[in-house]
Amino acid sequence: MDNIAGTKSSLTWAVNISVVVLVVLWLFPTLGLLISSFRTADQIATSGWWKAMFPSEQNLVLRTGDPDDERVERDGVFVVEGNLFATGSEAEISVWGTSSREISAYEAGETADLGDGETMTVESNGDYVWTGDAEQLTGRGQRIFATAVTPPEFTLDNYKTVLFSGSPTDNMARAFFNTLTVTIPATIIPIVVAAFAAYALAWMDFRGRALLIAVIVGLLVVPLQLALIPLLKLHLGIGIGKGYLGVWLAHTGFGLPLAIYLLRNYMVGLPRDIIENAKVDGATDFQIFTKIILPLSFPALASFAIFQFLWTWNDLLVAKVFLIDASGETTVMTNQIVELLGTRGGNWEILATAAFVSISVPLIVFFAMQKYLVRGLLAGSVK
Amino acid sequence: MNPALQGLMTIVLGVGGCLAYFWLSNQVLDKVIFPARGKNIGKNINRANLIRPWLFLFPALFALGLYLAYPVVETLRLSVTERVPVPGGGGAFTYEFVGVDNYAKMMDEPKFWEAVRNNFLWLLVVPAMSTVFGLLVAQLTDRLKWGSVAKSMIFMPMAISFVGAAVIWKLVYDFRPIDQEQIGILNAIVVSLGGEPHTWLTTPFWNNFFLMIVLVWIQTGFAMVILSAALRGIPEETIEAAIVDGANPFQIFFKIKIPQIAGTIVVVWTTITLTVLKIFDIVFAMTNGQWETQVLANYMYDKLFRAGDWGIGSASAMVIMLLVLPILVWNVRTARREMR
Predict the structure, then answer these.
(1) Are B193 and B263 within one domain?
(2) pLDDT-based confidence at residue B132 (cuts at 50, 70, 90)
(3) Which of A55, A171, B102, B145 is the residue whose CA sits 20 to 30 A from A129?
(4) Given pLDDT bands bounded at 50, 70 and 90, which one contains residue B4?
């Protein structure tokens, strides 16, 4: 508000700070999902994603090597040596213990007396030395309760699971291509059909034109819930059944009112001179439409294409009703995520990754073509 | 056939078919039926021009009629019939007229009234909150240097599917028992302030609001974009005059700006209201209508596809249509007024 005379700088500060707060509020939920998708299941379960950026202190339960396999005799005592962590871990142990009741009994590097000459030494990097007689060093490995600081760690394993693994429930690759198969024809076909109709409504004179426009404005808001049963009945009746053709037709039908409305509003605004000059020069309506109107209407076509793309990509209901049959072969990503929510509601690493794969494409489209989306929104809301 | 190939063929056939239809039908009209030659040349051109608009309109009108207009009538018919399997008919059904029975049965169900109550709650809260937040962001970022970046961030959820948003917010609302570390940020904040963690989504009544937040989060961006453009469209002179008269920024906002964009606020409000009336995915994915969070669209889906009751399902769809009707009429009236 720098054009307001005498604006206090405190107000500018307040504005800046409140916008920062709002933006952070709006970004945080998505950021949480994004970060979680790069963490292991253990990490997600033991600490909040907002701690992922910092070294975290965790209470770990570790186990030494199996004494029956790994013990060696040295100077009359048996010794098991090794490292508690998997190779490559950069965790640092601060305190540890051998009982779940005293998990911080010893400092790192200290040697614990476990009674009757049995000892245990754990270094901060996880190296341990366990000594005792033959009877003490048998059975399973000794449990070590350690408090360790682990550096931030990220993994791409979740994306491997979701994109390339053979798991039928977790792998989203097929659903990804199914979604693409639904989306592209369902975006292109309504544009072609609507463009011709919009031209007629914008530039041709005929009786009932105003009425037709009113009808289209009315159809703009008809809830598609009404269409589900009658159209499913129709599709089953004429043999289309559930499948791609049905879902393409349905999306085309549902997208048409907005397409016609947006395109007509845009075409009406094109300069009348160009069209009349072309008519004088003997161009037919068909030529005017394909050679002049279509190229000039590109911004409006792009706006609608983005709308329709986002809508069909993100749709769940239409796909569930018209596409996905009992075999589940043609499942789309939104549907698979809902199923994952049901069966693997606690497996955040898979859920977060699957969801992020599904929202990444619309996000790319969104950021690349935001200008057209904004323009379409402004033209599309009935004023 | 490979679905991708099938998709490609559909694009080619669909687009090619459309273009071929338009071109051929125009050719037939101009060359065969009313040729622009001979002694009736003037009359023929006029006649052809009378018919041509309908050639351009036909595919769209056919699809609109079949996919939007016919279903309204058919749903109305189904809502007053009951689907009865034909004995020995091998999965065939007959539809018996039952009058308002379906509506009566629906009104006897507590779950229906729960859905109606929740839908009205959604209608009260979501459009209001989204519009207020949208207006707030639009105004705050109006003269900000990094305003467009901020707006872009708040607009972003518009691109995210309702299902994706459901997953995002389920992580926010995640609950762990008090002795464990909270991984949902909301409970983590509550615990760090000394409170007890809550299962936000299964606590009746209040859980509705936690679902609504998801839609507010998505729709605020929409409201912001439209209202931001409206704010930019306000004539500078009105604001300058107010400054000269000694108005403070708050007076300018509430007394000068808001009245001038009132029309746009109504448009934003009604558009979000339409979205709310049809809200399905968020509830379906997050609670599926359990714990008293049912809404009409999900109730309808339950009836149609889980209970297989087309009568009551259609009746509830008609209820949604009835709620949309006032907005439909209003939109048509404004559109017609603008055409004149």
Answers:
(1) yes
(2) very high
(3) A55
(4) low
With contact defined as beta carbons under 8 Å apart, do B284 and B211 qualify?
A: no
Measured between CB atoms, does B93 come within 8 Å of chain A?
A: no
Residues B115 and B166 reside in one and the same domain: yes
Residue B216 contacts A where some CB pair is shorter than 8 Å: no
Structural element, H or E, at residue A132: strand A127-132
Q: What pLDDT does residue A2 have?
A: 47
Interface of A with B in 40-79 (CB under 8 A): 44-50
Interface of A with B in 205-224 (CB under 8 A): 205-206, 209-210, 212-214, 216-224
Query: Once rounded to an integer, what is the mean pLDDT over residues A92-114?
Result: 81
C-beta separation of B318 from B303 below 8 A: no
Write out pLDDT tens, residues A37-52: 888 777 777 777 787 7
Of B79, B96, B127, which residue constitutes the final position of a domain?
A: B79
Q: Give the whole-angstrom CA distance, residue A14 versus residue A290.
A: 53
> Six-digit token pair at B219?
């729709």
Interface predicted TM-score (ipTM):
0.85
How far apart, in whole angstroms, are the C-alpha atoms of residue A333 and residue A358? 6
Mean pLDDT (whole number) for B280-308: 86
Same domain, B38 and B172: no
CATH code given to domain A56-150: 2.40.30
Residues 6+ apart with CB under 8 A from B270: B127, B327, B330, B331
B161–A313 CB contact, under 8 Å: yes
More confident residue, B44 or A27: A27
Residue B2 has pLDDT above 70, yes or no: no
B68 and B141 assigned to the same domain: no
Band of pLDDT at residue B3, cut at 50, 70 and 90: low
Query: Going by CATH, does the domain composed of A161-380 fall within 1.25.40.10?
Result: no
Is the pLDDT score of A145 beyond 50?
yes
B272 near B130, Cβ under 8 Å? yes
Mind listing the pLDDT tens digit for each residue in A351-375?
888 888 889 999 998 888 888 888 8
Min Cα distance A64 → chain B (Å) is 26
Cα–Cα distance between B201 and B291 in angstroms, integer? Answer: 8
| Cα dihedral A55, A61, A64, A65 sign | negative
d(CA A281, CA A276): 9
- Share the mean pLDDT of chain A: 83
Total structural domains within chain B: 2
Mean pLDDT, all residues of chain B: 85
Does B155 reside within a domain? yes
Is residue B218 domain-resident?
Answer: yes
Beta-carbon contacts of A49 under 8 Å, excluding residues fewer than 6 positions away, are: A32, A35, A36, A39, B171, B183, B185
pLDDT given at position B130: 93
Which residues of A are less than 8 Å from B142 in CB distance? 1
pLDDT for residue A17 is more than 80: yes
Closest CA to A47 of A61, A34, A32: A32
B52, A204: Cβ pair inside 8 Å? yes
Residue contact A256–B338, C-beta within 8 A: no
SS3 A79: strand
Which of residues 272 through 301 in chain B touch A, CB cutoff 8 A? 274, 277-278, 280-281, 284-285, 297, 300-301
Residues 6+ apart with CB under 8 A from B67: A227, A231, A249, A250, A252, A253, A254, A256
Average of per-residue pLDDT across B150-171 = 89
Residue B215 has pLDDT above 90, yes or no: yes
Whether residue B300 is contained in a domain is answered as: yes
